[in-house]
Design brief:
The structure is a homodimer of 106-residue chains. The first copy, chain A, contains five helices and three strands, in the order H-H-E-H-H-E-E-H. Chain A is of the alpha+beta class and 106 residues long. The interface between A and B is large, with 44 and 44 residues. The first copy, chain A, binds a DNA duplex (30 and 30 nucleotides) through helix 4.
DNA sequence: TTGACATATCGATATATTACGATATGATTT
DNA sequence: AAATCATATCGTAATATATCGATATGTCAA
C-alpha cells in the first residue's frame, strides 16, 4: 500500500467499520440495561426479578431484554411460566469490567 | 448488612449508579465518534482531519467533538486557526480495546 | 483591512428512542 | 374450564438525538 500524508499511522478501519459496534453500544447505553447485564453476569434472573431490581414495570423490562437479545447479547429460556435470560456474548464481561472500573469506583 | 433472599449474590450498586455510565456510553455509541476516539488514541488530529476521515461535514464533526468534550472524554487546544482534540479520559483506551476486540476482528 | 480558512453555534427538521397502558400469549393451579 | 401469574407485544405519545443550512467567531495572509 502506498503511504501518503493522509494515512501515515492511522489505525485500521474506517467510520463504516464502527457501525455495528455503535449499534451494540447504543443498546448497552441505558441504566436499566447495564444493570441487567451486570446482574446476569453474576447469576440467573427472571424477567420479574430484573424488573424489580431495576425498578421498572415488567413489560418495560421485557422490552429491554428483547433489545439485548436482538443484538446478540442475551439468550432466553423458559422455565415454567418464568423466563430466564442469560449472557450470550462473552465480550460483555470484559466490557462491563471496563465500565465498572470507570464509573462504579467512587 | 443483613442477607436476605433479595440480595444474596447481587453485585454492588443499583440501576441509579449506572446513569452516568449510560450517558457516557450513549455519547460513545456513534460510528463517527467511535472512529474519532480511535484516531485520537493513536495521534493528533484537527477537526478538519477528523471530519474528512469520518466523511462528515466540518460542523457535524465539531458537534460530535463537543459532545465528547462535554462528558469528559476529550479536551481541545487551538493552534493557529486549527483546533486539535485529544483524549482526556484514560479509560477510553481499554474501553476501545474491548470494542475493537469484539467488532473489528473479522 | 479585506478576504480566505478553520471551527463553532444556532434554528429547524427528520428520525430514533423511551415509556406507558392495554391487550395478548403461555403456563400453572383450582 | 376458569382464574391467575409471568412475560410479551402493540399502538401511541413524549422525549431525545442527528443532521443540515445558515451564520458567527477566531485566525492568518495578502
Amino acid at each position: 500500500m502506498k503511504v501518503t500524508k493522509k494515512n501515515i499511522g492511522k489505525p485500521q478501519g474506517d467510520v463504516a467499520s464502527f457501525v455495528p459496534a455503535a449499534e451494540c453500544l447504543k443498546t448497552l447505553a441505558h441504566p436499566a440495561r447495564l444493570r441487567m447485564v451486570q446482574l446476569l453476569l453474576s447469576g440467573k434472573y427472571s424477567v420479574g426479578e430484573l424488573a424489580e431490581d431495576c425498578q421498572v414495570p415488567d413489560n418495560v423490562a421485557s422490552e429491554h431484554l428483547r433489545l439485548m437479545q436482538r443484538c446478540g447479547f442475551l439468550t432466553s429460556e423458559r422455565e415454567g411460566r418464568m423466563v430466564f435470560y442469560q449472557i450470550a456474548e462473552p465480550h460483555l464481561k470484559s466490557l462491563m469490567n471496563c465500565i465498572e472500573g470507570r464509573f462504579l469506583n467512587s
